[in-house]
Amino acid sequence: MKRDRNRRAAILEAARRITAEGGPRQLTYEALARRLGVTKQAIIYWFPTKQDLHRELVVPWLEAEADAVIDALAAPRGAGESIGRAVHGLVDFHTSDLDRFRQVYLGIQLDPKPEQLMPPEALRAHVYPVTSRLYGALESALEAEARLRCDLSPREGAVIVHTSALGLVMMVALASALKDPLKHATDELVGTLVAMLTNGASDG
Fold first, then answer.
1. Nearest 5°: phi and psi at 118?
2. Given its phi and psi angles, is residue 85 left (phi above 0), alpha (psi -120 to 50 degrees) or beta?
3. Under 8 Å CB-to-CB from 45, ≥6 apart: which residues?
4. Distance from C-alpha of 89 to C-alpha of 130, rounded to nearest angstrom
5. Domains detected in the chain
6. Does pTM top 0.70 for this prediction?
7. Predicted confidence (pLDDT) per residue in 162-176, tens digit
8. 131: exposed, middle or buried (C-beta count within 10 Å: 0-12, 13-18, 19+)?
9. Are the beta carbons of 42 and 71 closer than 8 angstroms?
10. Which residues of the chain have pLDDT under 50?
């Protein structure tokens, strides 16, 4: 049993490295087999389709992202703090591993057939429950502790907080890939983003 877990883990780690080094299009059964020194059939035994492999890579990372947000929201003191904690938690999580961020949010877009990697039934079964958990935590924090000054519902506010943080991380990842640092430090940008987002909510 332990040997089985180790084999699956070795395949997934090789998949991560191949994608990080050469991009998602380089991740093939042949490339994995060469990297691990096994046959293509040995890979297919554990992951019969590329969809299975992609799901096993991405869904645990999405779950970890959701956990980072939920942990960050533990015992906030008000709407501003809820938003600030969520943004800091998301940015810290993703900037700790930019290759992981690229694989989760950019990799599938670069695949020639992304709808085959994550078809609707896979989204419904594996991804939507995770994103619902993440947005639910943010929504609950905003609903319980904030009076939104704009017309956004707490759920819409949750989506805006999440996607705004991801946009910031995307620019950090791009600058890192180009070895062209952003003019402003990441912490400074996070602080500015939080200030802008919290202008739409009031504590108490």
1. -140, 75
2. alpha
3. none
4. 16
5. 1-48 (1.10.10.60), 49-203 (1.10.357.10)
6. yes
7. 999 999 999 999 999
8. middle
9. no
10. 203-204
